[in-house]
What we know:
Number of strands: 12
Oligomer: single chain
Distance between the termini: 89 Å
Amino acid sequence: MAVKITKAQKKIHYDKKLCRLLDEYSQVLVVAADNVGSTQLQNIRKGLRGDSIILMGKNTMMKRSIKIHAENTGNKDFNNLLPLLVGNVGLIFTKGDLKEIREEIAKYKVGAPARVGLVAPIDVVVPPGNTGLDPSQTSFFQVLNIPTKINKGTVEIVTPVDIIKKGEKVGSSESALLSKLGIRPFSYGLLVQSVYDNGSVFSPEVLDLTEDDLVAKFAAGVSMVASLSLSISFPTLAAAPHLFINAYKNVLSVSVATEYSFPYADKVKEYLKDPSKFAVAVAPVEGANSGGGGGAAPAPAAKVEEKEEAAEDSEEDMGFGLFD
Length: 324
C-alpha cells in the first residue's frame, strides 16, 4: 500500500532537492515552459539524462528556498536567480557545455495548431496552391480576404497571404482556416531565457559567440582604450606602440628640418634629396609585337632586368620604412 505524502512533506522534499542542486551545480539555465506538455517535458528529461537535471515548480516556492539557502550558506550569488523566476519557468542544472545543452533542448520542439486566443510567436503565411477544399468552403477565405479561384472543383489560393502577424492573438476564423488546411504553424519547447554561471547572469545569445567574435570585440576594446589614452595624453599599455611611433615621427621631423642627424634620418634625408635615385625606371620593351625581324627584343629586356636588380639592391640597402 502506497504511503501518501502530505503537502508539507512535499515542500520539505522539494526544498532539500533544490538546495542540493544549488550546491552541486554551478551552471543553471532558466527556461520558459509555455505550451510544453508533460510528454514533451518527459522526452526532454530523457534526452538530458546524465548531464543535466530539470526542476520545475512554483516560483514562490523556488524563490523562498533560494533565499533561505543563500542566507544559510552565505553565498549571496544565489540571489541573482530570483529576478529570473517570472512566469512559467523552470531550472536546468547542468555540468556540461551550455551551448550543447541548449542545442539539445531545441531538438524537442513540437508543432502545434493555432488555437484561438494564442499570441502568435511568428508570422503565419498561407502559401498559394490547391487546398483540396470544395467550393462551399470559400466563405473562410472571403472573411480573411484571401484571393482564391475554383480549379477542377476545388478551391485554390492564388497568392501567399500573411494571415497572422507576430504578437497578434489568433482569431476564430484564422484558427478554423488553418485547421482545415492542416497547417500547424507554431512550434513549442523549452526556451532558454537566461544563463546563470557561478553567480553571473547573462543572455543566452552570449553562447553563440565564437573565438573570432571574442577576439574582434577584444581588439575593438583595445582600440577604444588606445584612442582615449591618446586623446587625454594618459599613457597606457594599449597606447604605448602609438606613443613610440609618434615620438619617432617627431624626432625624425626635427632631424629633417635641422642639421641634427642619426642613421635612420640619414637614409630619409638621402631619399628626400634625390628621390629619383631610388626610382625603378622600367623602359618599355619595343619590337616584341612588331612584325619583321624580331631579333631586337632581347637586348632591351636584358637592360630592364639589370635596372630592376639594381633597384632591388638599393631598396635592400635602405633596410627600413619611413616610419620604422
